[in-house]
Design a protein that fits this description.
Low-confidence stretches: none
Oligomer: single chain
Strand order of the largest sheet: 2-5-1-6
Distance between the termini: 16 Å
Shape: flat
Largest sheet: 4 strands, antiparallel
Mean pLDDT: 89
Structural class: alpha+beta
Amino acid sequence: MPRYLAMIRIDENETHGTGPSPELQQRMGELLEGMAKEGVLLDTAGLAPTSEGTRVHWQDGHLSVTDGPFTEAKEVIGGYSILQARDSAEAVEWTKRFLKVHEDYWTITVEVREIGEAGIPGVGPDA
């Protein structure tokens, strides 16, 4: 069954006070628990802010390393989920459920993409 990466994009400048409300945390926990029981949710996590990140860039045969924060970044990947679904339509339906547990004042974009099989021996879910 195909796997999908759901990249959760947020505006780091919109923190909504101290982060997710206790009610959102409860709804999210219930949803994620249900997704795990269904065998859909393989992994999920939030990411540290860009101020704690580092970018490594390769261009014209040269590496550059830049520590965060990244001033040009408005929308950043704030978390991810790895889903296992029959097809992309099912992965998108689960993603819609994830978004609907948030309060109306949140602005979140989730990009859902199928994970290709690398074919590298010893690497991947079948290793």
